[in-house]
Specification:
This protein has 245 residues and is an alpha/beta fold. It is built from 7 helices and 9 strands. Helix 3 packs across helix 5. Bound molecules: S-adenosylmethionine (SAM).
């Protein structure tokens, strides 16, 4: 997959080639990352890319000319995503959709944002990484590139499979433990040491449902649960009501 990043701060991305799953994705050729400096396309002598907001108001706006020219310079770029606090909030489902695209462009704003005509004419979709305002799109792009990289074929090993993770299935992931089995007197649940696959499966399912109920009840949809899941869910709810969990 190819991701082209349009930015005023390409240096914000340079460490990526040594970072975790992005490094792996780049190394195996699953990801091709192109950084485009928007300023290189400014047609004026001073390479100025911003200007005052028509109608007044604080801050500067990224001017249309460098952005139109930078985008026009890309041959067959794929869909153009503008990182924006006004976009739909990024989800794991959205990352799955993005990773299935052959190429995408991530357009990063700065200052007060970009001229509306760029959004109207050149942007296919706006994506936000949350209901708060950052100073630029770069950190949001980093989030997207990292989220996509680990989903690309061959990046995660089968033991690191993403299918069991939070926000992929119906529930958040179960609690996890590693060695030692006893750390400062804190014991790992015995069932996990038993080697009994069915009991471990049941323990994990219980842990997933409990985690979700306690941390993100808004994600639960009883109508989507299997009989077994619903039974565990009702049992945990009763325990919580009794103050037992
Ligand atoms: N004035 C804009 C507004 O109120 O909608 C905010 C501009 S913000 C200071 C500058 C740039 O940061 C934006 O153009 C956008 O690219 C990026 N940005 C800020 N918050 C973001 C968020 N939550 N998600 C994605 N990008 C964001």
């Amino acid at each position: 997959m190819k991701i082209t990043v349009l930015t005023l701060f390409p240096e914000a991305f340079t460490w990526l080639k040594n970072y975790s799953m992005i490094q792996r994705a780049l190394e195996i050729g699953a990801l091709d990352l192109e950084l485009v400096q928007i300023r290189d396309f400014a047609a004026n002598k001073y390479k100025k890319v911003d200007d005052y907001s028509f109608g007044g108001g604080p801050g500067m706006v990224m001017a249309p000319q460098p952005l139109f020219d930078a985008l026009d310079s890309l041959e067959d770029p794929g869909r153009v995503y503008y990182l924006s606090p006004q976009g739909k909030t990024l989800t794991q489902d959205k990352l799955f959709q993005l990773k299935s695209e052959e190429k995408i462009v991530l357009l990063n704003g700065h200052y007060e944002g970009i001229d509306q005509r760029v959004i109207d004419q050149k942007v296919d979709e706006e994506i936000s990484i949350g209901d708060y305002v950052l100073s630029g799109g770069e950190i949001a792009s980093l989030v997207i590139i990292d989220g996509i990289s680990r989903l690309l074929d061959g990046v995660l090993t089968s033991s690191e499979n993403y299918m069991d993770e939070s926000h992929v299935g119906k529930f958040l992931e179960n609690a996890q433990y590693t060695r030692p089995a006893n750390f400062r007197g804190l014991e790992v649940p015995e069932v996990l040491l038993s080697g009994h696959h069915e009991n471990i499966r049941k323990f994990r399912l219980h842990s997933k449902i409990k985690n979700t109920l306690e941390k993100r009840p808004d994600l639960l949809d009883e109508s989507m649960m299997t009989q077994e899941e619903r039974a565990i869910y009702n049992e945990i709810k009763k325990e919580i009501e009794k103050g037992g969990l």
